[in-house]
Amino acid sequence: MPISSESIKTNAADLGFHSIGIVPAGALDVESSRLREWLDRGFHASMSWMENHLDKRLDVRKLMPGARSIIVTASNYYTPYAHDGSQGKVSRYAWGDDYHDVVRGKLSKLLDLIRSDEPNVIGKICVDTVPFMDKAWAVRAGLGWIGKHSNLITKDIGSWVFIGSLIVDVELQYDHGIVEDHCGTCTACLDACPTNAIVEPYVVDSGRCISYGTIEHRGDTLPDKIASNLDGWIYGCDVCQDVCPWNRFETPTEESSFEPRNGETTLDADTVINMTHEDYVERFRASAIKRAKLSGLQRNAKYLVE
Ligand code: SF4
After folding, report:
1. Phi, psi of 204, deg, nearest 5
2. What are phi and psi of 220, to 5 degrees?
């Protein structure tokens, strides 16, 4: 008996995924030219890994030979807290436990459940660490649209969602409903960005983005455009999503792993500057904040105390 998409969706809901869509595996065409243009304009800044494995990034059948279907999920990570202060602000996505681990763990359980019906199914989990265009697939799967700030927006709970996908080598029943773009004439995110990083609707110049600068950028100093408009952020930035009218539909998650660790939504800059490597490892074990490394966090913190 073929595996039922309906039972996969029921299991996914039981595991706590907010929404799920299932689409056939294949190539991304329109998205391919957009990605290439973005790379050609140098908007990936120092993230040279974005240029790698383009063949796999643009066709999941090259990422996973034998791929037939993609199960795309969105996990709500909104928790009803604000930042503790205006300095040392940490992006909302990194308040709780590392979403890579949390979402990967749930997708792994989902794959186990699929295998309980069909033991030979091969699956590949994609949560940001493989060359896979998760936002493009989330749109194809009908989970939402890409806002002018370039994040996925769901119509029912806004943009505070993590995307996680499971590629499998079996055919399933597919979703066809696409959510149209509901940004309309709004330009709130473009207007609010402290560094004007959204250079035109749907196009972010990473080299100007506070989130890129404080997390991905390596080096002893931040790019000038970011350093002079840091706006109190020590790790990431939420401004474009904070101002988005679609986040009036934000709804607290039921996933306790995404609650702020130690109740903290900001980090004290002096504490970070004086942190030893041992302190850092202990404090940020299983946290997404590790991505910036201690040297990056301390570099960011120094700008906040200058
Ligand atoms: S702030 Fe406005 S333009 Fe930006 S993503 Fe939200 S709805 Fe779209």
Report:
1. -110, 130
2. -75, -20
- pLDDT > 70 in the chain, percent: 100
Kindly report the average pLDDT of the chain as a whole number.
96
* Residue owning the nearest CA to atom 2 of ligand 1: 186
- How many A from CA of 192 to the centre of ligand 1? 10
Do 121 and 170 form a contact (C-beta atoms < 8 A)? yes
Tokens standing for residue 31: 């998205």
Q: Where are the alpha helices (DSSP H) in 59-187?
A: 60-63, 99-117, 134-140
Distance separating alpha carbons of residues 3 and 244, to the nearest angstrom: 39
Residue 1 has pLDDT above 70, yes or no: no
99-143 per-position pLDDT tens digit: 999 999 999 999 999 999 999 999 999 999 899 999 999 999 999
Residue 28: name the closest of 161, 115, 146 by CA: 146
Give the dihedral sign, CA 94/98/43/25: negative
Measured in angstroms, how far is the CA atom of residue 305 from the centroid of ligand 1? 32
At residue 53, what are phi and psi to the nearest 5 degrees? Answer: 55, 40
* Residues annotated as catalytic (active site), given as ranges: 128
> Which residue is it, tokens 């702020």?
260
Ligand 1 nearest atom to the CA of residue 198, by list position: 4
Nearest CA to ligand 1 atom 4: 189
Q: What is the pTM of this model?
A: 0.95
The one-letter code for the residue type at 47 is M
By most ligand atoms within 8 Å of CB, the mutation choice from 183, 198, 247 for ligand 1 is 183
Q: Is 191 in the pocket of ligand 1 (CB under 6 A)?
A: no
Which of 151, 187, 202, 250 is the pocket-test mutation for ligand 1 (most atoms within 8 Å of CB)?
187
